[in-house]
Amino acid sequence: MKRSLALLATVAAGGSVLTACTEEQAYCVDLAKYGAKAVDVDPQKPVDYVKILDDAKKLQESAPADVKDDWGVVVAFAEKAKQAGSDTVELAKLSKQTGGVMTAYKNITSQAKDSCKVDLPALN
């Protein structure tokens, strides 16, 4: 009985350590998957941001604090692009607002490389 309780306590303690570790690992795995999809995104075409909206929202939720706001910038821009749809006037307006998104994405890219060892596609 004592042996079972000791084993159970060890497993429970180990589980809490694994949970803390797997959240960061899960973010890194999701980030790598996102990177594979983001290859097709042209940063100068706001309509392309719609392609990564769902992934960006998921990453924003699980992102570390140092890039959570940057993901918020990407998500907000992608949502605006989605709302614009095929309205060329609105998309043209958004094209002029890519600077903030590019800065946020550079922060995300740097953090991805440093913390997750993930290379995201470069924005040109």
Question: What is the gist of this entry?
Answer:
With 124 residues, the protein is mainly alpha-helical.
How does the major sheet shape up?
none
Per the principal axes of the C-alpha atoms, what is the gross shape? elongated
* Unreliable spans: 1-21
Mean pLDDT: 80
- End-to-end distance: 63 Å
Give the helix tally: 5
Radius of gyration: 19 Å
Q: Which percent band covers the strand fraction?
A: under 5%
Structural class: mainly alpha
**E-strand count:** 0
Reading the helices and strands in chain order gives HHHHH
Number of domains: 1
Helix content range = over 70%
Organism: Kribbella hippodromi
Protein name: Small secreted protein
Structure overview:
- The chain has 5 helices and no strands.
- By secondary structure, the chain is an all-alpha fold.
- It has one domain (2-116).
- The radius of gyration is 19 Å and the shape is elongated.
- The model is unreliable at 1-21 (pLDDT under 50).
- It comes from Kribbella hippodromi.
- This is Small secreted protein.
